[in-house]
Design goal:
This protein has 469 residues and is an alpha/beta fold. The protein has 2 domains: 89-354, Aspartate Aminotransferase, domain 2, CATH 3.40.640.10; 356-468, Aspartate Aminotransferase, domain 1, CATH 3.90.1150.10. The protein contains 15 helices and 14 strands. It has helices at residues 8-27, 51-58, 83-95, 106-117, 138-150, 172-180, 201-213, 236-245, 264-269, 283-286, 322-325, 343-354, 356-378, 401-413, 441-468; strands at 33-34, 65-66, 73-74, 131-135, 162-167, 188-191, 217-224, 249-253, 278-281, 294-298, 383-385, 393-398, 418-424, 427-433. The strands form 3 sheets. The protein has a 7-stranded mixed beta sheet with strand order 4-10-9-8-7-5-6, sandwiched between helices. Strands 3-13-14-12-11 form a 5-stranded mixed beta sheet. The longest helix has 28 residues, at 441-468. The structure holds pyridoxal-5'-phosphate. Residues 77, 137-139, 171, 173, 228, 253, 255-256, 282, 294 line the site of pyridoxal-5'-phosphate.
Length: 469
Amino acid sequence: MNLFNPSKEEFAALLQEASPLIEHFFENNHFSHNFSSPSPLLGNLKETSSLQKLIEDFQNSFYSGINTAGQSYMGFIPGGGLPLAALFEMIFSLYNRYLGVPFAAPELLNLEMESIKWHFPLFDFSPHTSQGLFTSGGTQSNLMAFQVAKQKLYEEEDLYRCTVYTSNQTHLSVIKTAKAAGILSKNIRSIATHNDGTINLQELSWTIEEDRKKNLLPFFLSANAGTTNTGSIDNLLQMALIAKAQHLHFHIDAAYGGYYALTKKGAALFKGIEHADTLTLDPHKSLFFPYGTGLLLIQNHLGKSASLKEKENYLTNNYFSPEAVKELWDFNELSLELTRPPRGCVFYFTMKILGQQRFVDCLEERIQLTSALHKELQQLSSLKIFPYSGLSLVAFHYQNNQETKDLHQRILSHEQFFLSTTEIQGLTYIRVCINSFRTTKDDIVKLLKQIKAEIKTEVDRSHKQRMSS
Ligand SMILES: Cc1ncc(COP(=O)(O)O)c(C=O)c1O
């Protein structure tokens, strides 16, 4: 078999040979996590191997660490990985068509554009002045948001006076990318939050005023539409008003929460999202696409979207008539990436088959499961529950920080569910983020039973200790 350049038949045989690995995935999806010491790394790249041997050697490597694609994964945020999208990723990789410039694959590029345009009405973005680009994820989208905002500066040197407003619950990627975009660390503000994790608007307004007095240039306001820690949603409408009054670029990081705006409940929670100048969404979080599928929507780009336009002599369209490709967006002018994977095409094919409603139903169900769990947890008097935002995340604290960490470890020790922890204003919380399309009602019932049993065991143990001392 020519493995380097297989024929149609040989590739079909390869698929057949690789199929045990695929079957194994579906058969073992209940696997949650395994934190026993990883096996010493097998072999090295100096020697080649057969596919069969490779599968034998590395099959178990998929069962070390956390199964983020599993139904029992309720950890950080992104899970899932729609099989249909995985299939299309493989097929598009096989075709490996070039999307760096419009003339290389105009019809496929048009699919990417359609995938982006599909989003505009969902968030009430104007179809006439909006654009967007698929990215590798929330971090790259946030970076590109700064890039878009920088076009509004009159002088490049002004960047050193520019201030950025985030809250103490803003995702670290916003801070990281602000710095990468050239904002000075000392000009990045972290505004206090209320007890429900939403930004304190008074402190925000006051800080902006103070910065103006110091001859700084208030520039970029980043709102949270679903914080990573607790799912909290800032008052987007009020923040939009502040941004407008203060002439700030209004960015919303909706990497986790954004797609919940499609649900009935979510629509009310995200009022004001339509005013974003830039909006970070992450199909690889709340639309369950495979990792590497992010998105930035850009509104009111003032016709200056080509922020990164550089003249490239070797990339001139000498092939199609200019008329034939004039409607196509040149993502090369908008994005840092030139050669890039066809994320928007995979999105298009997957969405075209599954349809929007399938996603909406799934997200509605994630909310129902979470709010049911939240109600049940509220009945447990030993827990302090973080104010529930209405999305798919509940965070709770048990007795004190050490007890919370111990409870978390006891839950993990059953190797049935993966939950994570976080710290907010000195308190440790266990986070349950129900954001995998595979998680069922049955899983939540079992999880709740486990939490209750662990709390009861702990209470009984303490009681016994007190009696014996
Ligand atoms: C709110 C928020 N923004 C941005 C990011 C960064 O996204 P990514 O990991 O796709 O780069 C995350 C990741 O969890 C997030 O939760």
